[in-house]
């Protein structure tokens, strides 16, 4: 069956009606919880993610983790039982979520100005409510928003995006779950879009180095597009809250 | 720019899963009309200049098609009279889902700019997207979408006329209610001012003698079939019709080792060779044995079935309840039709518009067609396709697609063979020819720098007479301390065929050069195959060399590969080479080299045979043609010289060396060739035949098989051994190409050659697999770089599948061509042989590959090939008259 | 007593925003360039890269002479000397308590910075060190004042005033620190019969007004025996719900806004105040009254 399906039709539309270089619809919201210091909800297509940030706060538990020159970033990724088509128990700390947690930490540590807060810890909790491809990028993007909401200083936004290759020729941006199944290799890139620095790159399978550049360029372009969408959301959120508080104590 | 609509699908994979997918609705999809000013301009082949000349309408118009029109009337759509057609995306998807071949044909039409087709993506367009209602069937929903798109077009471009063609009357009535001008295809086509097109209309049913008595039992509905299969009451399998008995067939069911026999009209129940069917097993006491009689359909029309009834009785008698009855069943429904286009001729002696078509493939039933040009068509080979097979009709209904040419013409017959075996044989396109190097082609200094110059070596080639595509050459020279240097030089085709070019794609699709008796279908254009890549004598050519250092006992001491430039001293035939070797007076370097090679080859062959390699003679038949009339004159079995096996040995060794090398470097994506060990049951006929003639054939291992074959010699009958070997060949499985990463190491084994690793390297001019191997090897040598597809396991596996398929087909086509021409050859000497069906049954072997049955009466010295095309029934029912292929 | 529980779909959620269109200052987001010049000093929420002064948080620009800083709308509590905070004791250590004050690091309350029972000038003896847990133990809530800020950003507190000390009966509401408006006093006794401590760190303590102010002197006594009357409890509950209503709509908290909200909430019962519509309604009414006050 899947052989009959093509990632990109001859007319240039994908299965869901997007063109090759179009992102899925991104909707996001900051400050969805009151308890954590910062929180965000993000939808990338049907992939839905909640992120909550606690901190920076005193290192709890074993004090030896604390570092004298930077804050410790602690990430925890989890998937809701109902997040995929099949309802199944997902024990915490399985291989996949541990891996994503580590990758998340890698991407976020690159953006957070950790050197400002020695001896402290920043906790980032990410929960996937619905998985429809591109889980990791959605988590990174949501976590960025939550960090901004928490007022934690960042060098800049950190955004992530996937890209794949259709018909061995055309790079596809932001692949959905269906496309992940049909398709070939998926390249996941997390980057600091303004400076163009890549902080994490992962490939689902081997593909030829000749294609790498164009797929990577496409993914980076995707990160930039995502950044401007997030930026807009942040600005409107700040404007909203600021207007309510009356820009208190603004001099 | 877009919005999301999620929809939910239920899918059953053990348990219910919920699928939610995005569906973006766009506002940037164009209608494709050139005149339209509101839509974004887009590449569209629709053109106001094209005119659909249909007398139903006064003005020009655009056509919108329903799915059933595309599925059933593809032959009409391929006619260039019809243009300015808008294909809705809904329709395209449905077609793709229902029939992949039709979809491909439709795509070919859409991509042709002169046909003025346009695909309108209605399901993502904001004006035409509809949401599926709850409980609405998918078909109704699609129909609704199609009508909505029609209405949208009518409102969108009020100045243009749009016509909706559908053969679904319910949809047509609904469309008319919505003020969409709609017609059936036949209404439309009959009013086109072009004759001959009506023949090509697909016929679901012929009017007239309808509602007569049913000839076949009903098929079960789809739901009943699925539940039946799930509950295990019914079996699903592929139907294979018998070639000799039109009332018998077999269904290969996965869970059964032996095929299920289906017999009789009711048993077969309208299944056609290749269909996926559902069978119901009969009770064990009703089981029968496979028939060994030949029954031929002699019906001339579908009015009466009386003759079938008598034959059914005959069949029943012949197969009834002896010992050894096999599982028997009857077909109760068709799960998937595998109808294709069939070559054949019209049956003579029928008047009127309804004609019977007799397919060349004997496993396909006759097809009833309607035509107004029967007189002309009777002289032609035709292509016909099946449209339907209603239960009240004895024969399937079809329609005429096109004529190939006069019956009996060599070109027509070749065309038939090529078509029946799915051999791509069109001329090379302009695009492909553009990839060829410009003539005159010269070797530049740059080329010399990159290659090892071997022009000083005494290289020669040995090939069959008349060979123009010489892809291998050899050399041999003594080294110090008694060692020998042996080089195999293979034409460097991969230098000219660069990956990804149209030329490369075409060659990959053709996969192999196909040799017919008097025609050759090249894999690559002639400039390469017969000139630039052909290692002709006395000309400087690029080669890929495999050079060994050997000792006098033919042990390989070292191997190296590199690209080179060579100059063959001489292109010889086997016979010439043999003469040089035998002529002791010749003492020049070339003769010495040939002698050394010959000596080495003998040692190598001996060693191979000891290891258990099989010698499976498949007599190569050479047909001499009259150069002017192209009539076959004589058939001769090719003579074999020592030099034949000499060349063969070195080619085998080169292939083995290369296989080892590429597997070492590319353990994951090397293209190799394996020959699986056949299952023991495959050898049953051979063992039986051996026992019958008093020989013990051991098949437990390749080595033993080879040994017992060698021992099965009857001095009185020299042909017997060859016969055994032919029979053994038939028991083998096909050797296939594969990608190293996809099998276990033990499975790499080549059974026939008894080597653990094998590949094809030595004939890149006529085999695509060799080109891939060349590329891999070039990467290893550092002479070339990789490209993505070369290292992609899945892509290469796909490629292998195509190569295997094409190779098999090419082989069949070649044999069919020989068979046809040998038939023709003995046309003059009509020897008839009377025999009773009962007695010679045991000796009636069916040579599947040649499609020729043969007899081997006990007293005869060699088998008698029978010409089934020319068999007639004697007055007594058990006696048949055959025309013999082999003279007695 | 049957309780009404309101669960609603995300789609039916109401927008609590009551933003009024005021002059919107320029908003900076992380990574955005603030200025090219180098003559400015970089303050909080900014960093320098390749000659540009860039923002590291999302917020608005504040400039004091040459010092540019970006203030995020929400962050952990940044303590300043003199701030009133409410905190919870997390640890008892040698001669000090650790107090969670919602800042980045736990604050410190030195044994020497508290008024021990028995007079201000009492000497701290070794015995006192052993008695520390008697005065304050883990989990206790205190009110205190920021005495100084250490170099790593952690705070040193003191309770050397009668108003500070251990908190007894009442409720704690945690809000984002930026929603607390700085004012002269953060202790308010409302005429309605309850008092409130608006900790600068976002912890708000609501408690019944104590008629006799001398009773809580020293601040290490907890009278859990005394029964708070139902009307008092209702008032406290209503105050809490009003504060929740205000913070849901991101309104600043100070005595006037809370009092107005309290007055405007009278048409709802205490329980009804948890319904989002009612909360928004209260917030809007409060907002109106505040703007009237401002304009008058």
Kindly list the characteristics that best describe this protein.
heterotrimer; B: 888 residues; alpha+beta; Rossmann fold; OB fold (Dihydrolipoamide Acetyltransferase, E2P); 5 domains; 6-stranded mixed sheet; 36 strands; C: 296 residues; 5-stranded mixed β-barrel
Instruction: Using the 3D structure, state the CATH architecture of chain A.
Output: 2-Layer Sandwich
Mean pLDDT of chain A: 88
Number of strands of chain B: 36
Give the proportion of residues in helices of chain B.
25-40%
- How many beta strands in the DSSP annotation of chain A? 9
CATH superfamily of chain A: GHMP Kinase, N-terminal domain
Question: Would you mind describing this structure in some detail?
Answer:
The complex is a heterotrimer of chains A (251), B (888) and C (296). With 251 residues, chain A is α+β, with helices and mostly antiparallel strands. Chain A is built from 4 helices and 9 strands; from the N terminus they run E-E-E-E-H-E-H-E-E-H-E-E-H. Helices cover 30% and strands 27% of the residues of chain A. In chain A, the strands form 2 sheets. In chain A, strands 1-2-3-5-4 form a 5-stranded mixed sheet. A 4-stranded antiparallel sheet of chain A has the order 7-6-8-9, with helices on both faces. The radius of gyration of chain A is 19 Å and the shape is globular. Chain B folds into 5 domains: 171 residues, 3-Layer(aba) Sandwich (Rossmann fold), CATH 3.40.50.1010; 115 residues, OB fold (Dihydrolipoamide Acetyltransferase, E2P) (Beta Barrel), CATH 2.40.50.690; 67 residues, OB fold (Dihydrolipoamide Acetyltransferase, E2P), CATH 2.40.50; 362 residues, no CATH class; 63 residues, no CATH class. In chain B, strand 34 and strand 35 form a beta hairpin. Chain C has 296 residues and is α+β, with helices and mostly antiparallel strands. In chain C, strand 16 and strand 17 form a beta hairpin. Chains A and B meet through loops of A and strand 1, strand 3, strand 4, helix 3 and helix 4 of B.
Question: Care to give the gist of this entry?
Answer:
Chain B is α+β, with helices and mostly antiparallel strands and 888 residues long.
């Amino acid at each position: 069956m899947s052989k009959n399906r093509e990632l990109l039709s001859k007319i240039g539309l994908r299965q869901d009606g997007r063109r090759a270089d179009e992102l899925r619809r991104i909707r996001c919201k900051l400050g969805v919880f009151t308890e954590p210091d910062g929180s965000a909800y993000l939808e990338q297509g049907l992939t839905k993610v909640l992120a909550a940030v606690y901190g920076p706060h005193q290192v709890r538990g074993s004090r030896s983790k604390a570092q004298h020159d930077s804050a410790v970033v602690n990430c925890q990724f989890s998937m809701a039982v109902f997040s995929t088509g099949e309802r199944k128990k997902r024990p915490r700390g399985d291989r996949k979520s541990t891996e994503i947690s580590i990758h998340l930490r890698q991407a976020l540590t690159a953006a957070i100005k950790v050197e400002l807060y020695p001896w402290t810890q920043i906790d980032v909790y990410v929960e996937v409510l619905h998985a429809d491809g591109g889980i990791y990028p959605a988590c990174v993007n949501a976590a960025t928003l939550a960090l901004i909401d928490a007022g934690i200083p960042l060098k800049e936004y950190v955004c992530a995006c996937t890209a794949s290759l259709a018909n061995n020729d055309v790079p596809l941006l932001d692949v959905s779950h269906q496309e992940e199944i049909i398709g070939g290799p998926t390249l996941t890139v997390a980057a600091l879009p303004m400076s163009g620095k890549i902080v994490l790159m992962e490939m689902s399978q081997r593909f030829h180095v000749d294609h790498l550049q164009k797929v990577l360029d496409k993914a980076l372009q995707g990160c930039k597009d995502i950044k401007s969408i997030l930026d807009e959301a942040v600005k409107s959120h700040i404007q909203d809250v600021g207007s309510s508080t009356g820009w208190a104590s603004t001099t | 720019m877009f919005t999301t609509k999620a929809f939910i699908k239920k899918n059953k994979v053990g348990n219910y899963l919920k699928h939610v997918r995005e569906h973006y609705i766009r506002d940037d999809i164009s209608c494709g009309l050139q005149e339209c000013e509101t839509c974004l301009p887009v590449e569209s082949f629709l053109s106001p200049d094209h005119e659909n000349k249909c007398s139903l309408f006064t003005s020009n118009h655009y056509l919108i098609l329903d799915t059933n029109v595309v599925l059933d009337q593809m032959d009409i759509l391929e006619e260039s009279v019809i243009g300015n057609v808008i294909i809705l995306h809904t329709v395209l998807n449905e077609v793709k889902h229902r029939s992949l071949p039709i979809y491909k044909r439709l795509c070919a039409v859409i991509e042709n700019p002169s046909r003025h087709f346009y695909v309108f993506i209605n399901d993502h367009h904001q004006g035409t997207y509809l949401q599926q209602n709850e409980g609405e069937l998918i078909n109704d929903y699609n129909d609704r979408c199609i009508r909505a798109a029609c209405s949208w077009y009518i409102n969108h471009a009020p100045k243009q006329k749009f016509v909706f063609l559908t053969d679904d009357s319910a949809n047509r009535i609904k469309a008319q209610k919505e003020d969409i001008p709609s017609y059936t295809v036949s209404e439309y086509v009959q009013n086109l001012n072009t004759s001959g097109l009506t023949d090509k209309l697909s016929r679901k049913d012929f009017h007239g003698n309808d509602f007569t008595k049913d000839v076949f039992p009903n098929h079960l509905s789809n739901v009943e079939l699925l539940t039946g299969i799930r509950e295990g009451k019914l079996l699903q399998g592929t139907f294979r019709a018998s070639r000799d008995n039109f009332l018998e067939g077999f269904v290969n069911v996965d869970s059964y080792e032996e095929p299920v026999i289906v017999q009789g009209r009711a048993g077969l129940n309208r299944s056609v060779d290749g269909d996926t069917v559902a069978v119901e097993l009969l009770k064990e006491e009703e089981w029968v044995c496979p028939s060994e009689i030949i029954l031929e359909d002699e019906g001339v029309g579908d009015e009466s079935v009386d003759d079938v009834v008598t034959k059914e009785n005959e069949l029943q008698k012949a197969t009834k309840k002896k010992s050894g009855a096999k599982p028997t069943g009857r077909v109760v429904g068709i799960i998937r039709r595998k109808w294709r286009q069939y070559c054949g001729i019209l049956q003579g002696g029928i008047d009127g518009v309804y004609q019977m078509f007799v397919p060349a493939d004997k496993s396909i039933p006759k097809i009833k067609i309607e035509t107004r040009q029967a007189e002309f068509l009777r002289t032609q080979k035709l292509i016909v396709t099946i449209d339907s097979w209603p239960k009240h009709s004895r024969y399937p209904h079809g329609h005429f697609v096109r004529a190939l040419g006069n019956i009996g013409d060599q070109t027509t017959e070749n065309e038939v063979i090529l078509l029946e075996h799915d051999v791509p044989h069109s001329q090379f396109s302009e695009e492909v020819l553009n990839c060829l190097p410009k003539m005159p082609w010269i070797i530049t200094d740059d080329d010399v720098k990159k290659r090892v110059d071997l022009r000083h070596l005494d290289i020669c080639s040995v090939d069959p007479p008349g060979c123009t595509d010489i892809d291998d050459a050899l050399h041999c020279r003594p080294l110090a301390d008694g060692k020998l240097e042996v080089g195999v030089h293979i034409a460097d085709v991969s230098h000219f065929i660069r990956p990804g070019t149209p030329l490369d794609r075409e060659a990959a699709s053709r996969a192999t050069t196909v040799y017919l008796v008097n025609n050759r279908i090249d894999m690559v254009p002639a400039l390469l195959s017969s000139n630039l890549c052909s290692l002709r004598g006395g000309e400087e050519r690029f080669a890929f060399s495999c050079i060994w250092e050997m000792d006098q006992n033919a042990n390989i001491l070292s191997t190296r590969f590199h690209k080179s430039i060579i100059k063959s001293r001489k292109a010889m035939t086997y016979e010439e080479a043999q003469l040089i070797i035998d002529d002791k007076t010749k003492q020049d370097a070339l003769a010495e080299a040939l002698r050394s090679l010959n000596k080495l080859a003998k040692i190598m062959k001996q060693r191979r045979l000891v290891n258990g390699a099989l010698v499976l003679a498949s007599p190569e038949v050479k047909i001499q043609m009259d150069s002017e009339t192209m009539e076959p004159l004589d058939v001769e079995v090719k003579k074999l010289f020592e030099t034949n096996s000499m060349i063969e040995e070195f080619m085998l060794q080169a292939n083995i060396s290369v296989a080892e090398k590429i597997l070492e470097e590319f353990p994951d994506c090397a293209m190799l060739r394996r020959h699986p060990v056949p299952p023991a049951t495959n050898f049953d006929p051979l063992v039986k035949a051996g026992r019958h003639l008093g020989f013990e054939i051991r098949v437990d291992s390749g080595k033993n098989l080879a040994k017992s074959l060698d021992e099965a010699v009857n001095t009185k009958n020299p042909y017997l051994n060859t016969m055994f070997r032919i029979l053994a060949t038939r028991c083998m499985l096909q050797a296939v190409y594969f990608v190293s990463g996809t099998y276990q190491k033990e499975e790499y084994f080549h059974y026939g050659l008894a080597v653990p690793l094998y590949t094809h390297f030595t004939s890149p001019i006529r085999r695509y697999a060799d080109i891939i191997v060349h590329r891999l090897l070039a990467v290893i040598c550092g002479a070339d770089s990789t490209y993505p597809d070369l290292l992609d396991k899945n892509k290469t596996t796909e490629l292998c599948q195509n190569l295997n398929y094409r190779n098999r087909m090419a082989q069949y086509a070649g044999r069919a061509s020989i068979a046809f021409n040998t038939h023709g050859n003995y046309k003059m000497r009509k020897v008839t042989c009377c025999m009773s069906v009962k007695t010679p049954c045991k000796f009636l072997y069916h040579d599947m590959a040649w499609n020729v049955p043969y007899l081997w009466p006990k007293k005869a010295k060699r088998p008698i090939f029978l010409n089934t095309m020319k068999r007639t029934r004697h007055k007594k029912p058990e006696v048949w008259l055959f025309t013999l292929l082999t003279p007695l | 007593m049957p309780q009404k529980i309101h669960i609603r779909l995300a789609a039916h959620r109401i927008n609590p925003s009551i933003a009024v269109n005021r002059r919107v200052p320029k908003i900076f987001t992380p990574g955005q360039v603030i200025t090219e010049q180098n003559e400015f000093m970089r303050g909080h929420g900014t960093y320098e890269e390749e000659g540009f002064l860039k923002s590291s948080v999302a917020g608005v620009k504040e400039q004091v002479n040459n010092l540019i800083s970006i203030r995020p709308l929400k962050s952990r509590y940044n303590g300043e000397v003199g701030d009133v905070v409410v905190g919870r004791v997390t640890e008892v250590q040698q001669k000090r308590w650790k107090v969670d004050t919602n800042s980045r690091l736990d604050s410190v309350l030195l044994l020497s910075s508290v008024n021990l029972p028995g007079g201000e000038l009492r000497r701290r003896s070794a015995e006192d060190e052993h008695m520390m847990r008697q005065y304050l133990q883990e989990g206790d809530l205190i009110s205190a004042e920021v005495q100084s800020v250490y170099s790593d950003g952690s705070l040193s507190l003191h309770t050397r005033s009668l108003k500070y000390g251990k908190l007894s009966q009442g409720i704690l509401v945690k809000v984002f620190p930026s929603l607390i408006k700085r004012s002269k006093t953060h202790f308010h006794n409302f005429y309605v019969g309850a008092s409130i401590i608006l900790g600068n760190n976002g912890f708000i303590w609501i408690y019944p007004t104590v008629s006799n102010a001398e009773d809580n002197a020293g601040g290490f006594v907890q009278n859990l025996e005394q029964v708070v009357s139902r009307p008092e409890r209702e008032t406290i509950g209503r105050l809490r719900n009003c504060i929740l209503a205000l913070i849901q709509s991101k309104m600043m908290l100070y005595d006037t806004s809370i009092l107005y909200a309290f007055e405007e909430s009278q048409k709802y019962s205490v329980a009804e105040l948890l319904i989002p519509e009612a909360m928004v309604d209260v917030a809007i009414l409060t907002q109106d009254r505040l703007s009237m006050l401002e304009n008058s």
